[in-house]
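Feature request, filed as a ticket because there's no other form

It would be nice if the structure record came with a short human-readable summary line next to the tokens. Right now we just get the raw output. Example of a typical job, pasted below so the devs can see what we mean:
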Amino acid sequence: MMKRQQMLLNIHILYCARPDQEEPSVKIITVEEAKRRKSVCSYYEEEDDDTLPVLKHHSALLENMHIEQLAQRLPARVQGYPWRLAYSTLEHGTSLKTLYRKSASLDSPVLLVIKDMDNQIFGAYATHPFRFSDHYYGTGETFLYTFSPTFKVFKWSGENTYFINGDMTSLELGGGGGRFGLWLDADLYHGRSNSCSTFNNDILSKKEDFIIQDVEVWTFE
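Raw output as currently delivered:
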């Protein structure tokens, strides 16, 4: 009798009822197996949480998949820092001048995220905050990226140092021969992406000229 009771205590019954099944299913497994399954699930849940950086604000453009892939390609000096939303067209309006103003107090690299009217997500990691300038600035850690149609990062080719340049009429990232890797107009409405020698990049969206739907600029602090 004691032996039978001990056997009963060492089993675990799984009861599962799903809407697409006519009858519920019952599965008997050992307690050890139940613990193992719980341990494995907890491990993967914790691992998934650890891969995502902390965002201090909600992003209207980035899903977890975007965030995870971008975070893995960021330089080591910004790894582990929370992401803070410094500028958003949804919150601050569509103006390059406002973007510059919101970036004026920043002292860390920034991540530019663009969503166009074709619902494509792309942008750039810039080693310096965007500002009005009469010359190019930034370093070779600057890169372009796109999720159109799959995630790609375009790092510095070493051919020139045309990383970032901005005035009151446009913001440019990457250049050479009159072609910009990424170009945005003063109203953050029209944009253009060409293959440029700075990054040897593909066109970031479906076509060279695109209409901007929304923009976000994230900083790391």
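Something like this underneath would help us a lot:
Residues 161 and 198 are 7 Å apart (CA to CA).
The chain has a mean pLDDT of 87.
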